[in-house]
Amino acid sequence: MLKIGSHVSLKGDKMFLGSVEEALSYGASAFMVYTGAPQNTRRKALDTMRIDEAKTMWQAAGYAMEDIVVHAPYVMNLANPDPVKQQFAIDFLVNEIKRSEAMGAKEIVLHPGAHVKQGAEAGIERIVSGLNHVLEKTEGSSVNIALETMAGKGTEIGRSFEELRAIIDGVNDSRRLTVCFDTCHTHDAGYDVKEDFEGVMEEFDKVIGKSRIGVFHINDSKNVRGAMKDRHANLGVGEIGFDALNAIVHHPDFAQVPKILETPYVTEDDASTKRIYPPYKAEIAMLKARQFDASFIEDIRKQG
To answer: Which H, E and C letters describe 32-85, residue by residue?
Structure first.
């Protein structure tokens, strides 16, 4: 079974139950969710999130809890040179891992961090130190930390496979460290995922090991390869293209790895910045059919 889904939201009073309902409405067999708003640290109590009901609904649909992914919030930076801010990131990530485990997730996706003009080597040292504390404080957890491949914007770390390898090698016990391979980010970082995904995977395997990939983020890119800008596009309307992304989604080596769409909402017109209609049902259907429909964005606008 193809493990494909998208980012979904916690839904009002329904909370996690609403997330499952949204994912199922898209025809998804996997999904990704934040445990609260990604831009802040306010979190609802676990006993208000309707977790048991959500798990029951998801499993009754025939899907596995291990194909639910959590994304850590953007406000944490394990590479921050300010010790107070780094400690905040450590403590909050520990809490997020505990929440993820309660929700049944197997992977929590983490942006490794930004070195804030202190240099990548110093930033990696702080990330390693932070992860050592997090892993120690969550010893025995079933949740992996999936370090995301980054586009290279600003001072973010993780723009190369070697930077992720340095983090993994530095951690005392790396058994719970995996990788979230983002197609847009790796393309924007300069890897040729469009024309030579097999070559990229060969390089990834030599540097990190393909078995470390715990999640894929499937996104097209608005940028040319190597732009280091991180601007997602809908499937087939960006620089990577549908055929390349479809091949990645159906790659036999990664059949058991959840693939998560983070493509932009479709707006009323191309000049609008307001998020209007989620594209995920249409994009998931195209991936299941292995066929691109050039009219899908206009169809979404009409249906909306």
So the answer is: EECCCCCCCCCCCCHHHCCHHHHHHHHHHCCCCHHHEEEECCCCCCCCCCCHHH
